[in-house]
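=== RUN LOG ===
request id: a7f3
mode: sequence -> structure
chains: 1
length: 742
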Amino acid sequence: MDNTQFSILNSPLFGIKKGMLFLILLSSVFFFSCVTEDELAELSYIPVTVVTTDVSSITINSAVTGGNLTSKQARNIIARGVCWATTPNPTLTGSKTVESKGLGKFTSSITGLLPGTVYYIRAYGVNNLETAYGNEISFRTVALTAPTVTTTAIKAITPTSATSGGVIITTGNAAITAQGVCWGTTDNPIITGSKTSDSIKYSTYTSAITGLTPNTKYYVRAYAINSVGISYGNTLSFTTNVIGLPVITTTAISAITTTTATGGGNVTSDGSATVTARGVCWSTSSSPTITNSITSDGPGTGTFTSLLTLLAPNTKYYVRAYATNSVGTSYGTEISFTTAISVAIPTLSTTVISSITTTTATSGGNITSDGGATVTSRGVCWSTNTSPTIGDNKTTDGTSIGIFTSALTGLTAGTKYYVRAYATNSVGTSYGDEQSFTTTLPSAPVLTTTSITSITNTTASGGGNVTSDGGGTITARGVCWSTSTAPTVSLSTKTTDGTSTGIFTSSITGLIVGTKYYVRAYATNSVGTSYGNEVSFTTLSSTGTVSDIDGNIYHTVTIGTQVWMVENLKTTTYNDGTSIPNVTDPTAWSALATPAYCWYNNDAATYKNTYGALYNWYTVNTGKLAPTGWHVPTDAEWTTLTTYLGGENVAGGKLKETGITHWISPNTGATNESGFSALPGGYRYGSNGTFNGVGYYGGWWGSTEGNTSSAWHRYMYYNNSNVYRYSNDETDGFSVRCLRDF
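=== RESULT ===
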């Protein structure tokens, strides 16, 4: 300091200034000591930047937009969303959405809009210092118009009807309230005249045009109506058909007896008018008409069959089919035949014996002639002697001519039988040629062994499929097992699962933990016992139990290189003895940023022992939740488990408890072959504190955080075999399974 400076500092004037300076400094110290941290933050506050997202998915009454809130200074965003109006610069006093809190991007769905209207939209963000708006964007909602429709080509034209329809090209963005076709005898018909009203379809529809006049030209247009108005398609025209006589052919005569025969016809065209009668007419003179003997075989077109009766034996007849419509009667070509001379016993042959077993066989016959009289009984007869008759064993297989099949039953194994077909009419019984065969001797059953599933520490599920009983009754079936190969029913443990052929399931119980077993299905008949192919499996290893600080005991299981708890965690205390807060109120739960647990539906009596507790991730992140020597698995350790079990697409089935005691039906793919016994304990939403999913959903936290507000967890569903990996909000409540430290 030079002399000049020193003199100024020591001058009376500077003394006064020094006092003032001291007072100023003293005041400043007092001011800053009274200002809060929030008030200091306000003094250095950096505003929030809001950007409005482009509008998309625009419909007549809705759209999708959103925004992005950014700031270099972290301030609590207490509300964000978008606001809109039909005038520029919309604010929060008008229509708006309210989305989740915080900075970053968000999406909003705008609804309740008017069609064909221009709207202005801005994103917004609110904290305790300001309300900030983003850039303004405008858009127009989709407008309503009349529909667009085209007329379908005219088809199926008759004298009094036709078929048309329409194709709805566009609905005009409004619901179709009526559609169909209209027609008339002048061009461009409208719906005040003749029309159809067809079921509402938003594509192609078909209309039946009826009540027309024959040989008349008509004009047709499709129409469609919505709230805007009515639209017509292009005009088409057509002329209805002229009515004529039916066209018919006569069927060849068959099944001729002394007094009957079978004929018929085929009406190939009704002449554009309904056929009201059809049949055949016959006479002993040529060119019979409907004034002679006739049959009446119904109305309509197509093929029909006629039975000619009351004929004279050994007589020639002439037959024509006929068909009648409103114009008149037309006839088919003439056919003649002669009735049989007299009645005889039937003519038939015996079918070769097939499908021979120890007690059954298949035969039958072919009746080529009924002898001119109705067959009243037919079948096969058999005996251990030659030339069997209907006085021996027999079948009864109908009353007509032609081929028939007969089942021979109640036979004796290893025995020779003689068989003849028979047929009886009013004259008597005739027999076919004689066939012989010998029944087979029984053999041992044939079966396969089912693969082993649902493997636990002491149980498994197996079974088999008996594909043949060997010709003898199955008296026992099941599976047998041993720790040695080739187990048998006499030396090994076995199940007893019925006495029939086909597929069966067996419950294998009383097994030793971590032991390899050999299994074979077996089936027994009078010949002996047969075995299926041998399969092997190893029961799951168990490492005992572990208890938490509350005294809850959990079973454990070894899966690959890991040892897991078999039940969900239910502790209410950290492993250092500190209590975990139990938060029951939904609003309080959703506002948490600290550890907490709950029971599903806040009902410990119902859900604690079976499903354990639901914890938010803040509880997991303390590192004190698991019993000493155990921990909540990391995301990588969950992946090690699912990879060992074959990948996420199948691991869920191997982890889920079997059956539908806890999982709802169908509990797809559940085998629990890992012994993990996953249960559907449900979850609690972090956003609103409500509960959901028990019975059909199970979710378990991992200890690995996904980002600043979410962490990884695994979950499974009742209707597939997958394990899903997802990063959920840390406020959500999920179950916890613990993994032993190594």
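=== NOTES ===
DSSP finds eight helices and 52 strands in the chain.
The chain has a mean pLDDT of 91.
=== END ===
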